[in-house]
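Two proteins follow. First one:
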Amino acid sequence: MKKIFCALAIVAITAFNMHGQNRALSGIVADSTGDAIQFAIVTIQGTYQSVQTKSDGSFQFSNLSDTIYCISVHMIGYENFKQCYNIPNSTVRVTLKKAPYQKDEIVVSSTRADQNSGVAYTNISKEELASQNYGQDLPIVLNTQTSVVTTSDAGNGFGYTGLRIRGSDANRINVTINGIPVNDAESQGTFWVDLPDVVSSAENIQLQRGVGTSTNGAGSFGGTLNLQTELNRKNSYSEMVASGGSFNSWRGTAKAGTGIIGDHWSFDMRLSQLGSDGFIDRGRSDLHSWYFSGGYYGDKLMVKGIMFGGRERTYQCWYGVSEDSINAGNFTYNSAGEYFDSSGNAQYYKDQIDAYGQDYYQLHFVYAANQSWTINWSLHATKGKGYYEEYKEDQSLSEYLINDTSSTLNDLVRRRWLDNWFYGITYAAQYNSLCKTQFILGGASNVYEGKHFGEVITAIGIPAGTSLGGHYYDDYANKQDNNVFAKLNYSLRKNLNAYLDLQARSIRYSFTGFDTTGSSLPQQANYLFFNPKAGLTALVATRHTVYFSFGVGNKEPNRDDFTNSSPSSRPLHETLYDFETGWKFGGTKLGAEVNLYYMHYTNQLVLTGRVNDVGAYTRENVDASFRRGVEVSFGYLINKQFSFTGNVTLSQNKIESFTEFLDNYDNYTQEEITYTNTSIGFSPSIISAGTLTWNNNKGLSASVIGKYVSKQYLDNTTSEDRKIDPYFTLNMITSWMIIKPSSKTGQKISELTLGLQVNNLLNTMYSSNGYTYGFISDAETSRYNYYYPQAGINAMGMLTMKFGRVN
């Protein structure tokens, strides 16, 4: 800890002493007609300095130390601008050209934060994503982001993976792709295994922490992942990527695009196949994905169709590994599919799998009415269908509606299916004045239709010809989710901006649930939420920006909370009040941000172990709980070859009063144990990451990446007997660009790169996730912990070949 605080102190001192000589660079950004362009992003390349243009199109950088600087200017709907200037005291005029084929960015701009939003966020570029994309799922690629903790069921990043932001789990993190909701409408989680290699089609990602800005889909309670797929390119291209390594893991990706055809048309495609045996026993995965887009780009209108999807077939690893097995030195034991033959020998059912496919269809329209008004709307549909198959021992066939007159128990194989559609429309109108105002009015109307059913495909030991029947359960769910939001960004004065964001969201959920007698019947739940947000951002000194924001988020319960309760025992919705304040510094060699947050929950839903009136274990509301902490992120350009980036989150995550319920099998009751000021489960008090990068600017580069996560409790009792131990991992990524990108025509290969990723260099044996349960029997309390161990030292190599001119 002392080293961490010393490093932060050095960063802070350096930030205030690196002003250098009093050279300046200022200018005006305008379009070809001479009209000023507000909100354009001007960046000094090779530094951490970046500003937005003001209402008159002006920008300024001061206290520069060198004599030559190159700037880049980015504005949606215009061609990117790059130019180098001699300093001192240069005043420049930048003229941006209209670029109709860059209207893609407007699709996501209405739901993203910017420099004036007053919220904590990080933009992750295509290049950053590609440098760490060796085939693992997106959560693993995001492992070094601020306040992020990731996990993998199979232990090596393939198959089922997940992430938490500030301790909040996946069903509290809003995910969109091109502004379209991705979270499952019922569970509200995101299953990245259904989107293998989606990173290869990502143009950029914005990760917001906390409530963030208003978006479409599930309520954001811990963060937002806003992913944009590839923008079109000017020139045609093709790419091939092949990677392979430990645990028989491999990935093959092929991409191609036409570039702009006839000044108006563009098409892109990708095919990917991935596989791995996994670190955990039988943790294999077989994954396929595809992507296709085609669009028309006119002077005022863009129409773009996007289709992508994935297929996964993974052996189940979601039960984890028991603590007893880990203590015995067996970190890979997987009990899924285990049964015993007539001789008492353990066997494993080979098709203990999860098999699911999900296809996304999107049609985006963008119309630029004039310089001030832009309108975009999107139609979308997502089709999902699949099942998980499992071997079950000693089952009563009558419970599966199989005609059985005996009282014997039989082994059987069952499948539980999900067949659903999710479709709707999203829309936004954006107004940018030439004065002080940016205004967005947007929203969405989405419908989910889901079928849940189960079937028995094999029953062992029953007479030949016995009918296995049809579906032993059939549930249908319908969810209608509508929202409308208005966002206003207003320049109160030259260096002070105000931000206001108001959202109304309505939900109508129809499902099959229980009444107080335990009988199933159709039910419905309705919600109407109001989620206001507001913030202030001020440039208080050269390179120094401060901000403050307050936001409210409301979130409905998940599917299990509804279907496994009666109307009288159903939990209330959750409410979050989020306060954020921070400071940003952008210097020539140093960039830094400090963000303080306080997240107060009302009626947060947590597992307590209590059995409700229909005999189910469901989540319950706790009256008051909070998360508070400080997030520090920074980057430092040590010299022309070395740089360092890092982040640290220090937090407290507490429930004021929590009651645990334990089953007592001696008298068939539940014992109550009350705790006060207890820690929220899976919420480490320290999360940090650091990356030291060397680049010789001749094609060779190497990065060493460290990640530390402090202890996490498996439940909300703050018990030292039920926790995930702290861990520190060290990874390394190296690359050698043998052939550098070139704009020359006739060059067959425009880029050839070899890469190597070595994970867990210290061969640390650790777990990143887990669960626990307990009970009382024979007057003794028993507790059982299960963990998800992660692989020791492992490696992936990668070959990338690109063809065509650089765009």
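Second one, unrelated to the first:
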Amino acid sequence: MVRFKFLLLMSGLASIVTLSGCSSIGSGISVSLASSATTIQQDQTLTITATVANDSTNAGVAWSLSGPGELTNISTTSVTYGAPTAVSANTTATVTATSVANRNASTSITINIEAVFEITTFSFPGGTLGVAYTGEVTAGGAATPFTWALTSGSLPPGLTLTPSTSTAFVTVSGTPTVVGSSTFTLQVTTAGGTSVSQTFSITISPPPPLIVVTGSLIDGTVGAAYSDTLQAANGVPPYTWSISTGSLPAGLSLSTAGVISGIPTTSGTSPFTVKVTDSSTPTPETATGNLSLTVNPSTVNNSKLSGNYAFLVTGFDASGHFTAAGSFVADGAGNISSGIMDSNDPANLQLEQSFNGTYIIGGNGLGSITFTGTGRMFALAMMADGNAKIIEFDSTTGAQDSGVLLKQDTAAFSTSQIVGSYAFGFLGADPQGNRHAFAGVFGADGSGNFTNGVLDSDGVSGITSDVAFTGTYTVSPTGRGTTALFISGQTVNCSFYVVSAGELFVIEIDDIAGQNRQIVSGSVLQQTGSLTLDGTSIFETTAVQSLTGSFTPQDQVGLLATVPTTGGAGTLTLTADENTGGTLTSPSGSGTYSVAANGRTTLTNSGLAASDPVLYLVSENQAFIIGTDPNVTFGFMETQSGTFTDSSLSGTYGGGSLPPSAASPVSEVDAATADGAGNLTFVTDSNTSGSIKNASSSGTYSVAANGRGTVTENATTTAIFYLASPAEFWSLSTDANAAVELFQQ
């Protein structure tokens, strides 16, 4: 009995809950729809109204659509349905109204959409004589394919109708050749044979007259790279520029593309008239503009470059890999004498070219050198010790290369002065024009013989390791030497220029017409002190990653920390930043190393490059780096000293790009000034396609205790650098060029 009463009680409670739900505000609500029609054609609209019965809240309805078209003008009582602009066959769409107060109350209306085969474009845009034109006509309301035809009239001369079949649209395109209006009729036909036509007209107007837009030019400065670009409007591009009267300031030239560039040599104001010619046919249009360019005086400091110098540059020209080495005498007053140079590329070997020339050094240490009679011009950035970074920028030779200019010790200009053990690193191209590198060691006896030579080579076709070689050499009183290296049955002939008894610039001088063998160049450094790894070094490497026929630079800067154990062995830790065509990564490694008596060092699990490279030590913690990977890693490392803060970077630094990893590079030299408090300014001379460009920029920097720093310009990190000391740092750009640049005070 107790259980029965309990069940009755629970049943009563359940009834109360159910009745409470039934008494909600949605009780009895119903929705009805009304519209003026239920069948419309494509691109038409229909208004639908909703009535909600028993809705005490007047909340109205919410609308939804299933099928093609769209809903607009939406309110709680009405909506506008818009059919698609074109449908290929009759179709339907469903509009549903749902009560806001009671989601269970809803109703729908089905709309029938009739396809109408028609041309849906009503007009063509106008065109301009001699300017490329494109217009499009579209049809709809039936299934493709369609066939288009020009049934009467004609298109403006120079324009054509394409394609004529199989598409829902047809294009009128070309370059108009006659001014005027043309009327024509286009017909489109379905696969079933239904056709519609429409008449159009296109008006071709004469172009506005060609004009020179540039009204003034930026000022130049004697000895500073200059670049400004002329602008034109109207007419038919591309434009061709020339000087019709007057002349540019000395040292500047105008390209046919309208770029005024060069390094001005004389101050003053030069008036001239430029002429621009467009590409109109059959008769090009011309216009002129009167301009003047002012060159301001500069605080010339030509005394910074004085005495005997040797140089080495490496890069590319129209024939492929290019390299040159030479020497000259600078008088400290802007004049060069006693110049001699060797250069080599797959098309042309030139030995002992004599030259003289001129140079200008600005107050900021940037300047230029012209080798008279060779067609070669260089921009340079001077360091306080009288050495310089250089890049070639002349448009005559087409070469884009970079390198160094170092003061010579004339007391070392004899065979007997080249004596002792030396390490070297050479970079260039193999017989197929692919990147190739050598590094190794040898002994020089001071009597013209190289002994105990050992080298490693790295190329896309494979590597060779620990190869023995010998050689002979001689040095002339000019400081130019020659050598023959006997390597695995092959003789490699080179010339070299003596920087000092401890440093040589080497260039291969075998005639490689048609690239029938490798061409390499690089530095030779005398081995000194202890050939060990013990401490922290900074390093740079360059490489080229070949992907689907393109060549992507893969360059790296970082730190290699080493701890010796016994017998020339030890452990290593690597921290680095790498840029592969604009993609930044942070390689790391933890491994071991082993140093042989001659300085050849092998690494294990270093994380340096695609596979562990080999080092050839010059001195403690200083070495050439030669890869063992198909990307042909190559670089250099040297000792890092001290711990660092922002104040470690202070003063003025001269900087220059390392030789480019691939053709079509952008090379540059810089004067960088840091205030020791996180602010940095740059004055840059850069070379793009043979044209020198001067630019200024500023940013901020920060330096970690390990010497790693970043440069930020306009809220973007533009470079990552590592300090070797407060007087030197190596920088890696973060853009797609992945350029490595060395800065020194």
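SUMMARY FIELD: The CA atoms of residues 540 and 557 lie 4 Å apart. The first strand starts at residue 30 and ends at 35.
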